[in-house]
Amino acid sequence: MEKVKLPIKVDPVRCANKRLDYQGVFAAELMPRLAESTQGIHGDINVSLTFGTDAQGLRIMSGKAGVDVTLQCQRCNEMFDTTIESEFTYTPLREDAEAPELPEEYETFEADEFGEINLAQTIEDELILALPLVPAHENEGCAEGKFDLSYGELPEAEERSNPFAILEELKRK
C-alpha cells in the first residue's frame, strides 16, 4: 500500500459529517517534541483515522498511531529500539458550548477560529503520552536485567490455625 502524507490541519466536524477515513503517514520532522523525548525516530509515523458520529450524536475522531523509536534503557544506559503505539478517540467541543456527558474513553479538543485542529500536534501528543515512564529493555535483553534482584529465598510460611475455629465449634454445639 502506498504511503500517503496526511493533512496537518483538518476540520473534524466536516470530516465526521462526510465519514472520512485516513490512512497515511506524518514525516518525523513534524514531531520535534517526540524527537526530544526519545533518542531518535525511525521512519515515518503511521496513522489510521476514522471520523464519524457515535450513538449519542457526538462527532468523533478515533484512530491509531505508531512509530519506531530509540530509547535509552534506564537500567543499563544502552540504547534499544521499540515501537510506540497509541489508540485514541476525540470529540470536538466549541468554546461557547457546554460539555455534554462524554464516555470515559473520549478526549476532547477545541478547534481554532476556523474550526480546524492541528492533526500532527494531536498525534504527537498521543505518542508522547504512550512513551514508557521508565524505558527499559526486557530482562533477557538488558545487561543489568539479567541480575536477579531477589536475594536469598523466602522461608515458607507456617500453617496457622484459624483463630475463629473455636467459635465455629461453639456454634455447632
Give descriptors for this structure.
5-stranded mixed β-sheet, two-stranded antiparallel ribbon, flat, Large ribosomal RNA subunit accumulation protein YceD, YceD_bac, YceD, ribosome biogenesis
How would you describe the overall organization of this protein?
- Keywords: Ribosome biogenesis.
- It holds the Pfam family YceD.
- It comes from Oceanimonas baumannii.
- Plays a role in synthesis, processing and/or stability of 23S rRNA.
- One of its GO terms (biological process) is ribosome biogenesis.
- This protein has 173 residues and is an alpha+beta fold.
- The protein has one domain (9-134).
- It is 19% helix and 33% strand.
- It has 4 helices and 7 strands; from the N terminus they run βαβαβββββαα.
- The chain has helices at residues 12-18, 32-37, 119-130, 165-172; strands spanning 9-10, 21-26, 40-53, 59-72, 79-93, 107-110, 117-118.
- It has a 5-stranded mixed β-sheet. A two-stranded antiparallel sheet has the order 1-7.
- Strand 4 and strand 5 form a beta hairpin.
- The protein is flat, with a radius of gyration of 25 Å.
- The termini are far apart.
- The mean pLDDT is 80.
